[in-house]
């Protein structure tokens, strides 16, 4: 707190200012926030910012994508692997509307983004000017916060708020729309002051000890406790705190697809994936556990299946930073509000060190059934058509769980998430909540910028790849080292699977033809190979991984293969089907 | 919170008045409105106006919903960055009024003495008298303002308008002290209430 004298002194000496344009202030602010990479696409209404960035090429690395949607997905990939805020530039009108899918994806998956859109001159707002669109209202439901700047002097404070809101609390995408006049306008710039408080915004609820104590008491008395963890552990950078909690409590822990990697795949207490295509044990045991400890997860319907038959026998302890998630889908008996990086150590301190051998043995028994009836055939079929599972399995042997696996959406995504080996955190990037086909390729580009020292593999289906394949151009132009692994089953496989199982094989518009992907990659000067036979799989994967720079490997897999286990929609998790 | 068991279970619809304190920021009205429209919940009445505190606006939103739904809505509203505080109350918890204006031909009012009596009975006050028309005003609950429409209809009611509900929360201690807490970097616990601890209170908050 400043004393009165200090305050008076500050007032007496006017702050040093420089006269700059709004665009320069924006770029200075981005640098002050630690931004190095921007994913964007220029256009008329954002030209002043692009003119300014011309002189900032040594400080800001701008990646020219081929479609604004992909700028948003690339920024998401960057944010997921780096833990930093992804930054996006787009112009007004179509540039801004093209961002919406990416914003929606980032909003539902809590990914921190700051998107800057150009806007027509303030005097033209509301006149249906060329490339004018009401992006503030269009993006309102899919942003954590948004703001329209019409005067250059607002830029530093708006940007500071944007970063603070995007990264604090439950992260999310933020959009700042800047009219062209504000980008060009000269003003007295006082320097950049980061934001750390907004009176109407509380990023985290205050931790209440009574709930920590109640939760600990429940956990200590539990006979069959079960941990469900989600992306909150990663977003809170609480992996160590989480591991300590799991290990001291000895409780089996299962993950949502966005929580994957919070503890390593091989951890003895990691019992697998939850949800519609999750593992057998975690789904069945959901309806047998006596205490359920949900950490940084939001009980999505793909995780819970039929809610009125979901864990009705269990006492639920829910740890979440977002009060709106408590009781939203599943009623919590003990709501532990707060940042799990703070709440988990408090909880760990109060729990008794235990092992739950008999209970864990039950999980092992389910795992054995799943292995024998399903996983072995999937991962090592020996004969017949290639399976998606064996591709991922062979990939695991080669990457040893150290690579970033970015997946698109569909069957291959479920397979990549189920079987992908992750030794550490932030290695799995996927579109969870929104299920955005076309996410994979652009997200992989961003993921590589976020984790430049890791191998980044984009596992994509033949359908999803064709939604955003123009990003091969970005990969080519910027020499992004992304390994593209297309699992081609010549179908929109997940929809086909549902049509087979629930619509009497009435295959309605799921038969999709593809171009020659290898030739396509070649036209972008990206090396590629197509694998159709089992004996070529390992050499193909090896070539892909050892190739300096990007590579496209297309693997022809079984056309009509289904992802199992599966909790059919409208069924309880314990009614999970193995076939 | 209410007398009926059904309502305590949270699964029976009733009127709720949601009070929201927000920053005076362009766009926040839309952000709040879409929380309802996304769930296909109709806002029956909406009042937005400056509160007693400078730069802070107060919303009164009237909906008919179950307590469970209202709680979830309240949390989604409070999640908005520019929202300071949300309260959701049943009719038992609040004192509320609506304002209504009625335009009738002056000649009828002037000629028919019993109209004057009806107006007095219904607590109406004259706002303006012009040669052609007279404007009356009443405040009250919906049923009261409705009743005067019925009364005036046979006498050539020309135009009618009703405001949204405005409501005062009986148990509220005001917002000034809370705001000072919000302005601190580390707000105290007394302002960050937790509804799970405050179940006995009539006002539930986040």
Strand and helix layout:
The complex is a heterodimer of chains A (579) and B (206).
Chain A: H1 4-12, E1 18-21, H2 22-32, E2 37-40, H3 47-53, E3 61-64, H4 68-82, E4 86-90, H5 94-98, H6 100-108, E5 113-119, H7 135-139, E6 145-149, H8 155-167, E7 173-179, H9 180-184, E8 186-189, H10 209-221, E9 225-229, H11 231-235, H12 239-249, E10 253-255, E11 270-273, H13 280-286, E12 291-295, H14 301-304, E13 315-320, E14 334-337, H15 340-350, H16 357-379, H17 388-399, E15 404-407, H18 411-419, E16 428-429, H19 440-450, E17 456-461, H20 462-468, H21 472-478, E18 482-488, H22 493-502, H23 517-523, E19 527-531, H24 537-546, E20 551-556
Parallel strand pairs in A: 2-3, 2-4, 4-5, 5-7, 6-7, 9-10, 9-12, 10-11, 12-13, 13-14, 15-16, 15-17, 17-18, 18-20, 19-20
Antiparallel strand pairs in A: 1-8
Helix pairs in contact in A: 2-3, 2-8, 4-6, 4-19, 10-15, 12-15, 13-16, 17-18, 17-24
Chain B: H1 5-9, E1 14-23, H2 28-37, E2 45-50, E3 56-65, H3 67-79, E4 83-90, E5 94-105, H4 106-111, H5 113-121, E6 125-129, E7 133-140, H6 142-152, E8 159-162, E9 166-169, H7 176-183
Enzyme class (chain B): transferase
Domain ACT (chain B): 17-91
Keywords (chain B): Amino-acid biosynthesis, Branched-chain amino acid biosynthesis
Radius of gyration over C-alpha positions of chain B, nearest whole angstrom: 20 Å
Strand order of the largest sheet of chain A: 3-2-4-5-7-6
Question: Percent of residues of chain B in helical segments?
Answer: 25-40%
From the spread of the alpha carbons, the general shape of chain A counts as globular
Helix content of chain A: 25-40%
> What string, H for helix and E for strand, traces the elements of chain B in order?
HEHEEHEEHHEEHEEH
Report mean pLDDT of chain B, rounded to a whole number: 83
* Count of distinct structural domains of chain A: 3
Annotated CATH topology of the largest domain in chain A: Rossmann fold
For the termini of chain A, the CA-CA separation is 65 Å
